[in-house]
Write a structure and sequence with these properties.
The structure is a single chain. The protein is mainly α. It is built from three helices and no strands. The protein has helices at residues 7-27, 31-54, 58-64. Helix 1 (7-27) packs antiparallel against helix 2. It is elongated, with a radius of gyration of 13 Å. The mean pLDDT is 80.
Length: 67
């Protein structure tokens, strides 16, 4: 599970956060959308790492993802 401050679990969470919407886009058959979406999510992943490092967002993340 996600552990605030642990770079390995943050990286795993952010990878899953990127792969899920890309998988949906790929399943739609729109390969271009999937590539564009994956590129955007990869670009913003560094910002997400910074955001997670600045404050514990565990409860916010759980709420957003229905956990």
């Amino acid at each position: 599970g996600y552990k605030p401050g642990d770079l390995a679990t943050e990286s795993a969470f952010l990878r899953a956060n990127r792969h899920f919407p890309v998988a949906i886009a790929e399943a739609s058959g729109n390969r271009r959308l999937a590539r564009v979406l994956e590129g955007l999510l990869e670009e913003t992943e560094r910002l997400f790492h910074l955001g997670l490092a600045v404050r514990d967002r565990t409860e916010e993340i759980k709420l957003k993802h229905g956990l």
